[in-house]
Amino acid sequence: xxxxxxxxxxxxxxxxxxxxxxxxxxxxxxxxxxxxxxxxxxxxxxxxxxxxxxxxxxxxxxxxxxxxxxxxxxxxxxxxxxxxxxxxxxxxxxxxxxxxxxxxxxxxxxxxxxxxxxxxxxxxxxxxxxxxxxxxxxxxxxxxxxxxxxxxxxxxxxxxxxxxxxxxxxxxxxxxxxxxxxxxxxxxxxxxxxxxxxxxxxxxxxxxxxxxxxxxxxxxxxxxxxxxxxxxxxxxxxxxxxxxxxxxxxxxxxxxxxxxxxxxxxxxxxxxxxxxxxxxxxxxxxxxxxxxxxxxxxxxxxxxxxxxxxxxxxxxxxxxxxxxxxxxxxxxxxxxxxxxxxxxxxxxxxxxxxxx
Length: 356
Prior knowledge:
globular; single chain; alpha+beta; eight-stranded mixed beta sheet; four-stranded antiparallel beta sheet
């Protein structure tokens, strides 16, 4: 700063030296990243997923290929136990999967929810898009469709998920997702019946998810010509009520892609976030010229007006390759980590944003 003051008193040569210095300082202080294509951006520090998607692009694969293989890598790796088989058992101890994929050129979407006994959820979602006129298949019917498409039945249960389920039962099924029931869901495993008098309590609206659960892998891929694809994969909320579907397989909630504007993907408390279609809203902000970072912040702020203590984050990228992310600050979650791959980086790189 002393150099800046000196430049104000005297010669142009000081200004010549100071301006590059200021540019470097701005970059170090978190100024908007430079834009370049192609681009891969995904939620959380899921490095292998980013590397796989980037490699697919460089081998000549399409944006959809990159999304499918990138998210599929997390299904194989069981990223943080919140993606793929062997994690997040529901109230009956079963792991089920949700996924979606979206083509930003055609606006077609393929999605599956409550998928059982099939490991490659995003692969099945792509088959829904390519081989049916539907958008979303669910439950046992989605599994039957997967088998017809050549996917094998496989057990999604592991010793780890069985232990998680057993420990939860031994802790009186805490926490869970019931409210306004008898017996008291905060103390008992049930079985529950509805309470005659529905009472609103503020703590019933608080997020049950946390940074320790992580959540979805959401990915946006933008090709050299600005073509956008997006996708998600998750095994959902741990100890969820069987049949529950969150934001991940819902177009506009879990992710959204539009090759005329950009793409976005969300992660966090899907029961809250899906009510606001954050990925769709972020893309619409970018369509109006809003910087991706600001677009992400705006959708997070909107949700906070109604659920100030919700847990979640959004990644955003426009068709020029500019990108950003935002997250909602809660205890234990003050920063959000995500992966970026672009020609400006020597390798897929973990980046961090402070939550708001």
